[in-house]
Amino acid sequence: MGSIKKLIRLTRVFRKDKNKDIFKENYSSKLVHNQEVLDINIRTIRNPSNKYSSLIFKEKFSSENGFRIIYSKGFNSFGFKEKVDVIFCDIKNQVIETYSNFNPNKMTKLHEKAASVYVLSNNMNKFLNIKQNDLLKILK
């Protein structure tokens, strides 16, 4: 019985729902950088199965969309097809660490103070001028 439940969970992870757009207004929020609202849609990911269905094996990351992974203290880019920018924030929404041009199939070090991880398209850290101790929030 336990193996059947595991098989069902595994199929749910890799099943794609074609009618569901993950960046509709009721699913995503806007990114706020130092009290300035940016035109970037952020989708919140709360568990590993959502991470696999939203991020893994994604063909292209657009500059208008990004992801926020909560309850995460590290990040890996296994299954990614292109470079991304990764930003770690603490519980007060301050930037702890930034990674620009993070390669596929790599892992970051563990950040004990991290409360959320933002995943943006390539070179967005430089474009938005995000650095340590900046504030990153989402606006619903």
Characteristic key phrases:
Jelly Rolls; 3 helices; 140 residues; seven-stranded mixed beta sheet
Description:
By secondary structure, this protein is α+β, with helices and mostly antiparallel strands. It has one domain: Jelly Rolls, CATH 2.60.120. The chain contains three helices and seven strands. A seven-stranded mixed β-sheet has the order 5-4-6-3-2-1-7. β2, α2 (48-54) and β3 form a beta-alpha-beta unit. The longest helix has 13 residues, at 2-14. It is globular, with a radius of gyration of 15 Å. The N and C termini lie far apart (41 Å). Residues 18-25 have low confidence and may be disordered.
Write down the domain tally.
1
Name the strands of the widest sheet in spatial order: 5-4-6-3-2-1-7
- Helices, by number, come to 3
Main β-sheet description: 7 strands, mixed
Structure, briefly:
This protein has 140 residues and is α+β, with helices and mostly antiparallel strands.
Annotate the secondary structure layout.
Blueprint: H1 2-14, E1 28-33, E2 36-45, H2 48-54, E3 65-70, E4 84-89, E5 95-102, E6 116-121, H3 124-128, E7 136-139
Parallel strand pairs: 2-3
Antiparallel strand pairs: 1-2, 1-7, 3-6, 4-5, 4-6
